[in-house]
C-alpha cells in the first residue's frame, strides 16, 4: 500500500496490523463492529483497512451466521490462512529440514532430506518441494557466520556454504522473500519468545562445539559486522585444552551422551570430568556475562538434555567466576532439538510481513508455532 506521507503511512501500517491481528487471533469470523471494538478503531477506518487486506487474499467475507435477529445480517470477515504459507529451513551437514505453516501459524507439513551427491543446493530445494512448493516467505537457518553483505562468510560445519549468497539464490529460484540467519542466533531468538521471559539473554549451545548468541533488549545482538557472539572467530581460541579445531573431545570420544549418562548415575570419574569441563569454559563465558549482564543464561544443544547433571556444575563454575552478588539464572533451553528451525520460521513471518499482508511489523504467531513444532528430529 503506497502512501507518500510518512506519518500517515505509519498510522496506516499500525491500523492494518491491529486489524489483521484481531482476525488472526479470533476463534471465528468477526463483524466490522467487533473488530472496531477490539482494536479501538473507528468503523470507517476498519472498513478501509479490510479493503486493503482483502486485496492480499488473506481476508475474505464469511457466510452470514445463523441468528434470529431481524434485518440484514452484519458482514462477517475472516482470515483465510490457506491463502499463503510461510516456511523455514534448517541446514545441517547431513540433513536439510523444512517446515511449512499457513498464515495463522498452523503447521502444514514437514520434511527432512539427506544431503547426497547433489550437495546442499539440491537438498534445500528438495526439502522445500516436499513440503508443498515455494512459500510466500522463507527463513533459513545456517551453521555459519553471516557477513554484513548477507553472504555466508564462513561455515566450519558446511564449508560448501562459505561465500555463498544463499538468500539471493533462493529468492531467484523460489520467487519468495528469503531471510538467512545463523542457526545459534535463531535458537536464541526462539528461546527469547518461547522460553525464558527475559529481554537480555546469553544463549550457549553445547553440542559437538560450543557456540554463543546474545539477545539484548529482546533483539538479536549483531554488532557492526554481525560478529557479536562469534567467540570462535578469535585466533587460537579453544574452549578446552582437549578440543580440536573447535570440536569438543571427551573421554568417551566425540559423543558426550555416554559420559553424561554415567555422571547422572553417580559415576565419580564422569562427574569429575564434567566439573573440570565446566571450570574450563566458565572464565570465557563469565567475561561475556560481565560485558552483557544478562538476566538469564540459556544452555542449548544436545548436551542440555542432561539437565542438572550439566547445569549444576556449570552454574557453580560461573558463579565462582563472578565477584558480584547478582548472578544470572542458568537454565536449559526449552527447544534444544528444533530451536533453530523454530527461530527461522518466526523470522520468516517477521521478515515476510510486508509480503504477507502488505505492511511490516506484524509479530509471528508464536503461541501457535510453539506447541505445533515437536522435536521429531533431534
UniProtKB/TrEMBL annotation:
GO terms for molecular function: DNA binding. CDD domains: ASKHA_ATPase_ROK (cd23763), HTH_ARSR (cd00090). Residues 22-61 form the HTH iclR-type domain. It comes from the Bacteria. One of its GO terms (biological process) is regulation of DNA-templated transcription. Transmembrane segments: none annotated. Belongs to the ROK (NagC/XylR) family. This is Transcriptional regulator. It comes from Brachybacterium phenoliresistens.
